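re: ur question from earlier - yeah i can do the single chain one, its not a big deal. heres the input i used so u can compare w yours
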Amino acid sequence: MPKEPKPFYREDRRRWYVQFGVKQVNLGADEAAARQKYHALMASPARPEALRGRDGPTLLVCEVLDAYLVWCETHRAPRTYAGHLWHLQRFLKSLPDRKTLAAADLKPRHVEAWANAKAGVKFVWGPTYRRNAIGSVKCAFRWAVLQGYLPSSPVESLKKPEAARNRKAVTPAQFGRMLALARRQEHRDVLTLLWESGMRPHEMRILEARHVDVAGRRLVIPSEEAKGRKHDRRILLTEAALEVVKRNFESHPSGPLMRNTRGGVWTNYGLNCFFKALRKKLDFPASPYLLRHGFATRLLIAREGPATVAALMGHRDPTMVMKVYQHVGDDEDHLREALSRGTGV
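and the output i got, formated as tokens:
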């Protein structure tokens, strides 16, 4: 016997809902009134069907996307859910018949037109952003197929653009110039920690005092908070990185570890603004992830094995390091030295 659906609260809409298959019934913003409406709905002989499968009533695009977001909220990491929510809400708004369009009538051209429409606006979507946006739509409909709501995805044939790859890594000399331009201690701390540890920018932003292990000279992010949510993320610290962590830990013994110039938490937007201002004074690309690329490249140049570098960066195998992060071929002096060692000349 199937379980009765229960009311739940959606933070993004600030409303209570009850789920019937892929159909969500809005119960309102007030919890007490929402529960009364829920009980009345459950007692009504005309209530929506509890299950809707492949042979049920026509499913709408908006119903599929809403149901997928509800599932994501409890089965995916908060950042993943937030990303899908951002893209799917905007995709739905782009459809002129968004309240009546059946899922079976959705075409790849609908998604492609939405993603490509951003090519002429002030903030142009790059290939990586378009890839992620299209991927959110494709994920929603693949989920609907796996759940048995649809026989096939109407956008499965849509090809995603290739993601743009960072072609350069920050070199030690370039990092020195970046550090010299950073006038505030908070900015120098961010640059140093990213450069010395190779951590992901997101990991730096979510660090809290409870993640600090000074005696072990490391940071430990538990698996439920780490990328992938399968393994603890252990970030080993050099002397320079440890100095940054200890100073911030002493200033902020609880709560967020790394603070911006106003004492607040570093946001993705704030971090990007800092690097954007920095790039205006430089003659080379600079971004948080290019520091991570620089970390990988200089360790490989120092003859550390790809598996070791991957472990330090939080990857389970060296594939990503060799495909994405290493830029050994850009260092001609290193290549000449390797050639000399190999040939004995």
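Residues 50-56 have pLDDT under 50 and may be disordered. not sure if urs matches, ping me
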